[in-house]
Amino acid sequence: MLHTLTEDFATFLSEVTHSDLSSPVPYSTRDIGDLYLHLLDQHNNIAAVLGDRPIPQPTGPHDRQALDTRVDPIYGSVELEAGYRHSAQLMENAFTATTDTSRRYQVPGFPAAADIATLYEEQIRNTVIHTWDVAQALGFPYQPARDVAQRVLRTTVLRATPQASDSATETANDTGEFASVLSLSGRTR
């Protein structure tokens, strides 16, 4: 599932032009360029921690200055999707290669150490929410499939209230799963 969601995100990134890099992301102090760099760091951090080894610097732009000067001379695109796909693949491979499901991992940027299943669900949640962020910044609609929205809602509710039960997500289902996810994550349509 994570691969499909990262591909959805990459599809939106393929639409980003140089002038879009500074477009603000809703409900954040970041813009599209900042969010892109944040996600590369997050993917690389997850891959490094799960794989117990450092991840080499990406080949594409990996800092704001390099990102701001990258432009395709013909199409005006900044071609963010290639770097994003590379970092996402490193992360996905690390999730796949992890065999110790009981071990807790401390990933920079995450509030506490977590097991592999929790990290995976958090990454699904982050990918869906940030896909919505970029789509909104670019003026495109985004609505994940209902089963994805339900899964992300469950993760979001558990994150907010670790003792939450399935009944908490069932109540939110009545008002629309993805609308509830957006609301619980401080975003609105």
CATH superfamily of one domain: dinb family like domain
Q: Terminal Cα separation, in Å?
A: 24 Å
Biggest pleated-sheet summary: 2 strands, antiparallel
CATH topology of one domain: Four Helix Bundle (Hemerythrin (Met), subunit A)
Low-confidence stretches: 171-175
Number of helical regions: 8
Strand order of the largest sheet: 1-2
**Level of helix content?**
55-70%
CATH architectural name of one domain: Up-down Bundle
Assign the structural class, choosing from mainly alpha, mainly beta, alpha/beta, alpha+beta, or little secondary structure: mainly alpha
Mean pLDDT: 84
Total strand count, please? 2
Q: What is the ordering of alpha helices and beta strands?
A: HHHHEEHHHH
Topology readout:
Elements lengths: L1 H12 L18 H20 L12 H5 L11 H18 L6 E2 L8 E2 H23 L7 H15 L5 H8 L3 H8 L5
Antiparallel strand pairs: 1-2
Helix pairs in contact: 1-4, 1-5, 2-4, 5-6, 6-7, 6-8
Protein architecture, described:
The chain has 189 residues and is mainly α. It has a domain at 2-116: dinb family like domain (Four Helix Bundle (Hemerythrin (Met), subunit A)). The chain has eight helices and two strands, in the order ααααββαααα. The chain has helices at 2-13, 32-51, 64-68, 80-97, 116-138, 146-160, 166-173, 177-184; strands at 104-105, 114-115. A two-stranded antiparallel sheet has the order 1-2. A hairpin with an 8-residue loop joins β1 and β2. α2 (32-51) runs parallel beside α4. The chain is globular, with a radius of gyration of 17 Å. The protein starts with a helix and ends in a 5-residue tail after the last helix. The model is unreliable at 171-175 (pLDDT under 50).
